Amino acid sequence: MLDQVINGDCLEILAQIPDNTVDMCFADPPFNLDKRYSTYKDQRAAEDYLAWCEQWLRELVRVTKPTGSIFVHNIPKWLTYYAGILNQIAHFRHWIAWDAMSAPLGKTLLPAHYGILFYSKQAHGTKFYEVRAPHKTCRECGAFLKDYGGKKDQMHPFGMLVSDVWTDIHRIRHNKRRDPHPCQLPIHLLERLILMTTDEGDLVLDPFLGTGTTAIAAKRLSRHYIGIELDPLYAQVARDKVAQAQPTRYEGVPVSLFLGKIQSIRDCDAAKLFPPQLTAPQKRRRKAAPQSVLAPLPLSQLE
Ligand SMILES: C[S@@+](CC[C@H](N)C(=O)[O-])C[C@H]1O[C@@H](n2cnc3c(N)ncnc32)[C@H](O)[C@@H]1O
Q: Does the pLDDT at position 116 exceed 70?
């Protein structure tokens, strides 16, 4: 199954994967919100939906290695149930709030984030790397948007360590360039999660692959993947897109790129590539790099 997009039901395919073999699982299941998928009917009774979710959540934990991690993306309502299940069989690490504005529903607070639950299979020995994202700067003048308490000169030259609130990755809007899929995720969202919890050559699994986001992210960062998708049309779109994906590296290091700029980099790599005190030749190389090394992405891979 390695490096394959498999068209099938995730429960049937997961049953064929041995215990403790996957480094990182990411699941972005249907949210039971009556979205228009071409095969799956996204409207079940809540009990039905949750019983089904429990089955694949248990499978994801089973196939994950003792050093591995499990991420699940959904609306907060369902994540509260997922946490109840996962707390019994894995170890809670974080609730990542991914800032994403949606429409007012009326008589509620305006939903403004999706959650990504982050669990590890075991309490200790989990593979985890801190990640940095670039400082937010003014588009016109390039100045830092934050004041940093008057200590801007002491800031890391590349950017801040990523927290559990993500505001710098935007949802994919409906436009001509998006795939024929109602809820495609941005590739650099997955790239950040993959950089955080895997090494090159590790295996990433997505049981709800859609049009291929996780597999593309894995391939770009030189990881292996297994993608499972029920719908034959989405699976084929995913295969075509994955075939075109190329590794994204900066000075030999796998990084997440968006619009030709680094969006996420591991702290350990940033420490080597963006040391606080750059020597003159390093400064020159860094100045030259954005044009020469960071090639713009193909349009098909941009939001
Ligand atoms: C929220 S979408 C995932 C989108 C994906 N993250 C992307 O960026 O393209 C959920 C996907 O799960 C698929 N799906 C639903 N039931 C499934 C099942 N039993 N096995 C595998 N895939 C399933 C749907 O067809 C849909 O494409």
A: yes
Helix, coil or strand: residue 162 = coil
Domain encompassing residue 283: 4-301
Please tell me the distance between residue 249's alpha carbon and the centre of ligand 1 in angstroms: 29
Q: Is 215 in the pocket of ligand 1 (CB under 6 A)?
A: no
Relative to beta strand 253-254, strand 203-206 is unpaired
pTM reported for the whole predicted model: 0.88
Poorest-pLDDT segment among 8-17, 243-252, 267-276:
267-276
Our CA angle for 192, 226, 253, nearest 5°, is: 40
> Which range among 122-131, 166-175, 182-191, 215-224 shows the weakest confidence by mean pLDDT?
166-175
Q: How far is the CA of 39 from the centre of ligand 1 (A)?
A: 10
pLDDT tens-digit series, residues 135-183: 887 777 777 777 666 666 667 888 999 999 999 998 887 666 667 777 8
Q: Whose CA is nearest to atom 4 of ligand 1?
A: 210
Ligand 1 touching residue 210 (CB < 6 A): yes
Cα–ligand 1 centroid distance for 185 (angstroms): 11
Q: Is the CB of 10 under 6 A from ligand 1?
A: yes
37 lines ligand 1 (CB under 6 A): yes
| Domain CATH number, residue 9 | 3.40.50.150
| Contacting residues for 27 by C-beta, under 8 A, at least 6 apart | 56, 57, 60, 70, 71, 72, 73, 206, 207, 208
Mean pLDDT for the chain overall? 88
pLDDT in tens, 89-112: 999 999 999 998 777 777 888 889
Domain count, the chain: 1
Q: Whose CA is nearest to atom 13 of ligand 1?
A: 208
What φ, ψ does residue 143 adopt, rounded to 5°?
-75, 150
C-beta of 30 in contact with ligand 1 (< 6 A)? yes
Nearest ligand 1 atom, CA 35: 1
